[in-house]
Amino acid sequence: MKNTKPRIILSTGSCHKYGLYRFFETAKKAGFKELELVIDSQYDSQEPAYIKKLERRFGLKVVSVHSAMEFVTDWGEWQNRLKKSIKLAKDIKAKYLIVHSWDNFDKEYLEWLITNQKKLSRSASPVKITIENATCRYDKETKVQKNPSYHFDVMKQFDSINLDLSHIGTAQMDLMEYYNQIKDKVTHIHFSDSDSRIDERNPDKILDCHFVPGKGKHPLKKFLKQLKSDNFSGPISIELWSDRFAKNVTEEVVIKNLKLSKKFIETNFK
User: What is the DSSP letter of 68?
Assistant: First the structure.
């Protein structure tokens, strides 16, 4: 039986400068029922008891957790960060744990992840591990191949993929072509727009845009229609960068754009 409505959730990354209490409050005002928690350096995002308290307070549920990245230094190196991220996801009874395909272009980590993905999935069960496509902003400093196909060749080796649309923009790849080649592995989505523009602060790189739908060049209406046709039933997590909504970002502006993004998905998932 085909799903009739998209499963839309909101990532804390969309309000990454908010505290966790304010994020829950904002998500509630914007009409969301399910959330994605990005584990960051704030203690609030690392404490299961407090997260559960906020769930009860606002009547919202964290269904996805984004594992701690390299800037969460108090959790140690990547193996320990991943272990602790799995524990947190289990403790709050999340359904998904999103993991980057590599940390800061660390090839040792990438090779380990590919080799151990099945073992990792077993250890995380019943939480489902899904691997996020990396940003692939190729330059000399990263020492990663500049051919975008390298990135795609990496992702084909994973069993479950979280497809981040902004990261497709930074890799300067076509959204529909990319999706159609790996759609049988896509279980989770980070939804936003991108126009693959040059980062003004670093002209050698492409900006990781995370724009409001319609503000970039991704064929998002076509993409959502394809998701519906493919009976995609996983979470579509809205992951925007709220500090790019306007020069002076008020709470009203944030809520307005979150609602617009949610409505965009609901309207075009058909």
Answer: P
CA dihedral 183, 189, 192, 196 (to 10 degrees): -50
CA-closest candidate to residue 197, choices 207, 205, 187, 188: 207
- 140 confidence band (pLDDT: 50, 70, 90): very low
Q: Determine contact, residues 211/194, Cβ cutoff 8 Å.
A: yes
> What does the pLDDT look like over 191-230, one tens digit per residue?
999 998 887 887 777 788 899 999 999 999 999 999 999 9
Tell me which residue range forms the domain holding 138: 7-268
Number of C-beta neighbours around residue 53 at 10 A: 13
**Domain count of the fold of the chain:** 1
CATH number at residue 58: 3.20.20.150
Residue 131 belongs to some domain of the structure: yes
223 in any annotated domain:
yes
